[in-house]
Amino acid sequence: MTIDASNLHEPAVRCGLERLARGEGPQLRGRPVALLCHPASVTSALVHATEVLAGPVGAQLVSLLGPEHGLDAAAQDMESVAQETGAIGHVPTYSLYGDDIASLSPSPAMLHDAQWLVIDLQDIGARYYTYVWTAVLAAEVALQCGVRVLLLDRPNPLGGLDEWVEGGAIEPGQESFVGLHDVAVRHGMTLAELAHLAIVERGRAPHAGLEILECAGWRRRMLQPATGLPWVLPSPNMPGFETAQVYPGQCLLEGTNLSEGRGCTRPFEIFGAPWLDGRALAAALAGEPAATPGLRVRPLGFKPMFHKFAGQRCGGVQLHVREPAAVRSLQTGWALLTAMWRLGQGAMRWRSEPYEFVADRPAIDLLAGGPWLRAAVEAQAPLAELLAAQEPARRAFIARRRAFLRYPE
After folding, report:
1. Which sign does the torsion angle of CA 135, 137, 140, 141 carry?
2. pTM score of the predicted model
3. Residue 5 and residue 10: Cα distance in Å, rounded?
4. pLDDT by residue (tens digit) across 349-381?
5. 11-233 in CATH: which number?
6. CATH fold of 241-378, please?
7. What is the side-by-side strand order in the sheet with 148-152?
8. What is the pLDDT of residues 16-33, one digit of tens each?
């Protein structure tokens, strides 16, 4: 029997970049193109978008744009990224994450008279993950300038079924770079689907010049392992799929004085504080099975090498993903905050420092979409009450997003 070796490692899904490399999508040969990308902008063979566009696609790269963490994703969270040196020859490169809100959008000059802005960013599937908002802001500027926009789509690692959508609305006035537009926390959309929704609903730019090159083979019930695609760190503290699974709930810790595990090898999966008793926390969660669907909780001690509590021993727990399809990390995050507030006996506090360029509201309110979560945690509201309160907004978002979904179940 003859085996076709070329198909042995063919992934189940081909991302938009891969399809572009194979000659699908708009013809960009010889066209001046600006590219918004990061290290995870690769084909299944790990060929980067810059090489694909300059090589088989034959585009003329005139500008490179980098999101939060930079083109090489070397910068830590909320670390200002200076203008970078050219990644290919003498192509001008620009940071879209500087010292202020204005830095989050490109100026028209940064596009260098491009005919197309190509956007290829791997999202994680949580509202706070800023890459989708960088894509929206960049696309709006390009469309306002008459530059066509091509979104090269990628799978949502957390899948896209209605039942996997978590979280409610962003209250008016609570928009920020961790929620530029009113969407659910775990939104269940690909980056292109969500960006399209936001661009249309925000109405700040024409969207007739927006094109999407979809993934081939992706289904909404697929989690990351089912795609067959390699995992490339899209940001410094997102080392693997398990991290992404717990991130929608665990990112809430950024709004507190607890360590979310940055400075450790398993950020967001490991978390705690010097004053936290991990065994007591694990026991508290064990008494409420609805708090940790799909997860197991293990007490541990750890010492972050940087970030919060650097060099100090912390007590805490590690979340282990046991049943990926059952994980509902946002409701786990709500339950964790409530339990840790109680166990901390006054030691747990809300972050008061500026967060994502906002200084007049607590970070936890920006992450939650309003002050409701902070009030509920302090009042020790039951988890069932939080879920019930957010359910109408969750269902409303599921209905709103339907017109923008591009992939079958």
Report:
1. negative
2. 0.95
3. 10
4. 999 999 999 999 999 999 999 999 999 999 999
5. 3.40.50.12170
6. Aspartate Aminotransferase, domain 1 (3.90.1150)
7. 93-95, 60-66, 32-36, 116-119, 148-152, 210-213
8. 999 999 999 999 999 999
